[in-house]
Task: structure prediction
Amino acid sequence: MPLMKFLTSDKTIEVAQDANILRSSIRFEGSVPFKCGGGLCGTCRVQIIEGQDNLSKVMKKEIDRLGQEKIDQGYRLACQTFINGDVTLAWGEEDVARLNRIAEKRISSAQ
Result:
């Protein structure tokens, strides 16, 4: 079974073949930040550090949301990406900060 290593949260989990990165993160508390889980918001953006060849092909939603430049730099949407071998991934403070800004805007508009 493939191993998924989350550098940012310092956690490694064993997952089933063709496991979705975001669903596995939620299930095993990998802590990948996310908001929608459907490829629309881009908050589950992760950077693949190792194992790029062990991923599903890039989806159109990922290109639309991230842009080809980010894809070329190894970024993927965790909600759209499945693994079939060992993968190491990370996300940065800017990703968490972006998610917090989205949440703050929604809270402000609801008040």
